[in-house]
Specification:
- The chain is mostly helical.
- 53% of the residues lie in helices and 5% in strands.
- The protein has six helices and two strands; from the N terminus they run αβαβαααα.
- It has a two-stranded parallel sheet with strand order 1-2.
- β1, α2 and β2 form a beta-alpha-beta unit.
- The longest helix is centred in the C-terminal third of the chain and has 30 residues, at 106-135.
Length: 173
């Protein structure tokens, strides 16, 4: 609470208004209910400073998130859920907050293309792992985790090089 208030005070003191706070979707469970309550308290504090708070804590049912399809575990979305969340946030920022596009430099465009390539590698890998888990009958709260350690990156790159879409989105590494 102290850090939240410090952040809000900083924003206020520096006359920063274009800030939106958001709680991403989670599956609210009885054993984690106090965390859900803390989020509600944070929302009250944030709104008392005049900032918007978008609360998708209850797994964003009305925004189209489906527990058995879009979650990796109780607290994290899988690749399908993150796509829905990205679309939801992009739509919200454009239609509710008037965010418009910006012209990118060549360096930014190159960085973006690299990000797109990485995204597709991770997406294809995760999609295959989710399909594998479903085939094995492992459904529900499990999924596939991707971390940034060297082993995970090498596994994803190896998988990506063998994928039918390899090279479709730019360089292979």
């Amino acid at each position: 609470q102290r850090y939240l208030i410090q952040t809000l005070e900083y924003l206020k003191e520096n006359d920063i208004h274009n800030v939106v706070f958001m709680r991403f979707p989670h599956i609210v469970r009885k054993d984690a209910y106090t965390r859900f309550q803390r989020c509600n308290e944070a929302q009250k504090i944030i709104e008392s400073y005049g900032y918007d708070f978008i609360n998708l804590e209850r797994y964003g049912e009305q925004e189209g998130f489906v527990v058995n399809e879009d979650f990796y575990n109780w607290d994290h979305l899988n690749i399908y859920g993150t796509e829905k969340l990205t679309d939801y946030i992009a739509d919200l920022l454009v239609n509710e907050y008037g965010l418009t596009g910006a012209e990118l430099t060549e360096e930014q465009k190159a960085g973006w293309e690299n990000s797109v390539e990485c995204y597709h590698k991770i997406y294809n890998y995760c999609e295959a792992m989710i399909a594998k888990r479903i085939k094995l009958g492992k459904t529900g709260t499990g999924g596939t985790a991707v971390s940034e350690d060297e082993k995970s990156i090498n596994t994803i790159n190896d998988y990506a090089e063998k994928h039918p879409d390899a090279g479709k989105y730019g360089k292979k590494d």
